[in-house]
Amino acid sequence: MTLLHYIAVAAGLATAALASYDSACSNNVVTYWGQNSWGGANLNDPANWERPLADYCQDSTFDVINIAFLTNFNLTGLPVLNHAFHCTTVFNGTNTLHCPDIGADIKACQANGKKIVLSLGGGNIYTYGLNSAAAGQAFADTVWNMFLGGSAEYRPYDDAVLDGVDLDIESGENTGYHAFINQLRAHFQGASKQYIISAAPQCVYPDSNLGSTLSSGAWIDNDYVQFYNNPCNLANIDNQWNFDYADWDKLTKSNPNPNSKMYVGLPAGSGAAGNGYLDLATLEANLMKLYTSYPSTFGGIMLWDASWYSNNQKYVRNLSSWVKSNMKCGSTPSSTITTTTTLTTISASTPVSSPATALPTTLVSTTPTSSAPVSTLTSTTTTATPTATTAQSTSTSSLPSSAACTSSNNGQYLCSSSGSSAAYSICNNGSWLSGSCASGTVCVQNGATIYCGWS
């Protein structure tokens, strides 16, 4: 995922309760809101930027919405949020946002049966991390008091109580997250509401930032594995060298939470990620293959992000409807499959009204990473130029000296110089084809798989 940003639109709030999240089901649909990544690629079209949070809670498309992101923590002072253009006001004397309108939307979404969760981390910002158990416990207390069921002088969403915490950790010290989770669960004891603890690792197994936490026995309700922006994207489902779903399934089954679920993370639009976006017919076939092969851990899908949904509504609504019709709750997979109309183009099916909130004089923007969003934040605004970070393949032949390309390793990826070069090669029907990660990133070898990471 990647952190970006931009403008709000007025909308009415529905009062009727809608279909709600069920942790026992395999057909939940999750998205991230608050980064306006579509707007980062469409700076001159603010009318179609990400809409207010409550707009995404008016029907049954989404069950869980993760608010992105809490970007700066484990520093002196209060933690820092980034919600793009949606909120820029801070508490006096702090860099912490005060967002009463988002707080009102949180409560409206919850009234419609949605779970609204705070996501921590994101990509591109290296000012977060928990370097000890003590740091993890202390930060859990802060999160509980500022965002969940506790109390604090500064609560960014006022009296709105979020439904949990998501870890989209892509940098920084990570030794304290197990203790962070344990301390949060201690706060959850006796609570009147169901809280969610989720993680959003990249699909390369094990994840370089969350792997140690996830394998250490930390309690996780949902793993939103990002099957995009890496060679392990869903397009490679039949490639033994790249697609490692079975490893994630095994990890999920080993979690101390017997109901822990794994979600297939996907881009919500063709430009939402460097790779991994598929036409509906192909995507549905692949999802059904995973669901029938791993029914006990399959929890549903995660889509990055809400702003792309706004500009690709027919595709996302059809996908959500198909998931809810074909993936069940507490039962074995059905042999009857409901189909949907395949859509391969992106279009906004519903016009978006003019922004109700003035655009800040400068915009916050960062570059996409191999999985999650984030951005720097001063008291109100910062500037940067959004650029894309995607792997770019070429057809130039390049034979790695360390391996032959034969039928036995067809589809294998190899970094030319892991960790120091952007170049990689792909074994393709007897010949090595060369490719390159995007500018500023390097190829990193992880067993038989590779990913593009920051240099």
UniProtKB/TrEMBL annotation:
PROSITE patterns: GH18_1, GH18_2. It catalyses: Random endo-hydrolysis of N-acetyl-beta-D-glucosaminide (1->4)-beta-linkages in chitin and chitodextrins. Residues 27-320 form the GH18 domain. SUPFAM superfamilies: (Trans)glycosidases. InterPro entries: CBM19, Cts1-like, GH, Glyco_hydro18_cat, Glyco_hydro_18_chit_AS, Glycosyl_Hydrlase18_Chitinase. Residues 1-19 form the signal peptide. GO terms for molecular function: chitin binding; endochitinase activity. Its EC number is 3.2.1.14. It holds the Pfam family CBM_19. Keywords: Carbohydrate metabolism, Chitin degradation, Glycosidase, Hydrolase, Polysaccharide degradation, Signal. Coiled coil: none annotated. Residues 356-400 are annotated as: Disordered. It is an enzyme of class 3 (hydrolase). GO terms for biological process: chitin catabolic process; polysaccharide catabolic process. GO terms for cellular component: extracellular region. The keyword Signal applies. This is chitinase. It comes from Coemansia spiralis.
